[in-house]
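Entry 12.
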Amino acid sequence: MRLSFALVLPVILYAGCGSSNAFSNDAGNTGTGGTSSTGTGGTNSTGTGGSPPGTAGNPNGSCSAGVPSSGQPADVSNPTSVIGTGTAASCTFSALTTAVGKGGVITFNCGSAPTTIAVTATMNLPITKDTVIDGGNKITLDGGHAVQILNFNSDNFQATETRLTLQHISLVNGKMTPTVAIPTAPAPCSQGYDDGQGGALFMRDGNLTVIDSIFTGNQAAQLGPDTGGGAIYLLGSKHGAVIVGSTFTNNSGANAGAIGALFGELDIYNSLFQNNTATGHDANDVNSSTCSVMNNGQFEIGSGGNGGAIYGDGNGFNILLCGDAVLNNAAGKNAFGGGLFFTSDDMSGTLTITDTTITGNTGGSWTNVTTGSVTNVGTAIGVNAKSITVKNSTLQGM
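Predicted 3D structure (tokens):
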């Protein structure tokens, strides 16, 4: 895996997906995933009545150790911006996108009924100010299968302390359309795109908290070795993501059907991942004997498909699952980790699975550790890690 910075013009060259031979030999990726999609339709669209967002989180389990303070809801008693004046019609996309651009605490006053706000262009978050968006369990932001919903794009890498918190809200039908095509070459050379990460949310160099929220029907780029994150894609995060009591269903991306993190911690509590799909195929490797065309400076083969639900790649971070259900997700053809794909490239990262059920997922699997007594985590996980801890959990194939 390679990572480099240009000090004057900060362009990050980064690796995406783990090697198909179960040991990391990643190709660099110049895609940022952060080019904001622009949708059709006016910015003055108004909120409409909608179905209740539903109950978020794992309905059949919880983390016995509880959720840490970092996973508690933010205080929204003194909002910076309140969207709406008491009716669904008063909750306009124009008001919301203005508030998002300012940052701070954002709440909604759209009436007593559930409200859906049509998102017609990607909303860009401030990179120097914390933002909290609290939907009060009544608000759905709908990308209309046309645009990415939220974008946080800093030029730095694992440097920013700024945090986005999404709580008590639903983000649905977001779509990040890729534009950077991989050079044309016959298979097994990689096919697809180098960009298009994060169907609902892309974050580079930001930190994320998600609490009691629902992500469904979101779509990232569908083909490529180094792209994906159907709902969320996190790149170069100093403190990573804390996800609590949330639901991810029917999201898709070339890799990381629901959540992808490249150089970013993932701590996930009491959440449900179901029917998410990594749509790429043949994973990712570098092999000049079978591909003579370069992509991202390497002879890259394979077109993704790793991590049907959850995906983590990079150095110096861990993944923790506690009280989660990871059910019926799918990696792509000849790819790995139907439930979870995690490759710690420097073998310093740890995987901890507690009070969690991982069943019904499809895809290849392997377990590679350097220390500890756990040397097999079943058929839904592909992992390179320093060590693995499993407690009170059900893992398919075990």
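Annotation: The two ends are 31 Å apart (CA to CA). Helices lie at 93-102.
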